[in-house]
Amino acid sequence: MQICKTFSEIRAVVGDWRRHDQAVVFVPTLGNLHEGHLQLVKLAAEHGDKVVVSIFVNALQFGKNEDYALYPRTLDADIEKLRGAGADALFCPSDREVYPNGVEEQTTVAVPTMTNILCGATRPGHFTGVTTIVSKLFNIVQPHKAVFGVKDFQQLAVVRRMVEDLCFPIEIIEAPVARADDGLALSSRNGYLNAAERALAPALYCALVAARDAIAAGERNYALLEARAQISLLEAGMRPDYFSVRAAKTLEPAAPGDHDLAILAAAYLGKTRLIDNVTISIP
Ligand code: PAF
User: Fold this and answer.
1) Which of 8, 19, 34, 81 makes a 20 to 30 Å CA pair with 243?
2) Could you read off the pLDDT of 148-190 as tens digits, one per residue?
3) Residue 47 annotated in active site
4) Among 77, 84, 75, 23, which residue's Cα sits nearest to residue 54?
5) Distance of CA 261 from the midpoint of ligand 1 (Å)
6) What are phi and psi of 245, to 5 degrees?
7) Domains, the chain
8) Catalytic, out of 20, 34, 37, 144
């Protein structure tokens, strides 16, 4: 696996592959890799000839009171995991390489819809931080395809919209949510949970599945389902941020005639904010 720290290094590597007609698939990450990330790498390998992974803890997408400083930086362990998963190149730039003029002066890329609701309501500016870094990484790495996990459902929808609006010639591939045996969606932030919190955490997925089962059984009173789920999360010891049934494509609140729905939730367990979602298509 080639390890590149500068734009010119990764461009030279990918440029060479592209000249030899090799399809390059990109997996952007914040690092602190777990099994869910390695599944993204494996999926990427199925969709092309060469896999590039990036590791960059992007200050621009963290709010002032969020966990940017705390976010685990585990580069050596990540490199070993990526070697095992068969990645061909790792791009792990410094802050100075990515933001030479400083984060405050960075030109930004903002998607005007879907970004101020759900996670965007609690984390103002988060999605602009994401679309700015993803567009920079796309321009630097110049892959043919890029893999994003469905776990970050809203992020995926926003990135798809950015790719469409800005005409990036990059195919977006969706990776299913990787889960622990008890249903908890794999996330680097699960590492913040103590043993008691970790035992409670699957309640988020249970609430989502209960709502999905109720819709499958014919329930169309989404406000009622949302209220019930919030109560179940409180009873499980969580502090719900949102629990919402949405139209999967637009992320607008679901209306009775909508067929493709996403049920999205975020909740705090202690200081840790967990997110998860499930989808359902109704005839
Ligand atoms: O989902 C993530 O890990 C990050 O938001 C991403 C896409 C790597 C951008 O920093």
Assistant:
1) 34
2) 999 999 999 999 999 999 999 999 999 999 999 999 999 999 9
3) no
4) 75
5) 24
6) -95, 120
7) 2-175 (3.40.50.620), 188-278 (3.30.1300.10)
8) 37
268: its two tokens? 């705090």
Q: Helices (H), strands (E): how many in the chain?
A: 10, 9
Q: What angle do CA 226, 121, 110 make, to 5 degrees?
A: 130
Q: Which atom of ligand 1 is nearest to the CA of 54?
A: 8
Amino acid at 249: K
Ligand 1 surroundings by CB, under 6 angstroms: 28-30, 58, 61, 130, 133-134, 152, 155
Q: Percent of the chain scored above 90 by pLDDT?
A: 99
Q: How far is the CA of 224 from the centre of ligand 1 (A)?
A: 33
Q: Using CA atoms, how far apart are residues 10 and 15, in angstroms rounded to an integer?
A: 8
Does the pLDDT at position 256 exceed 90?
no
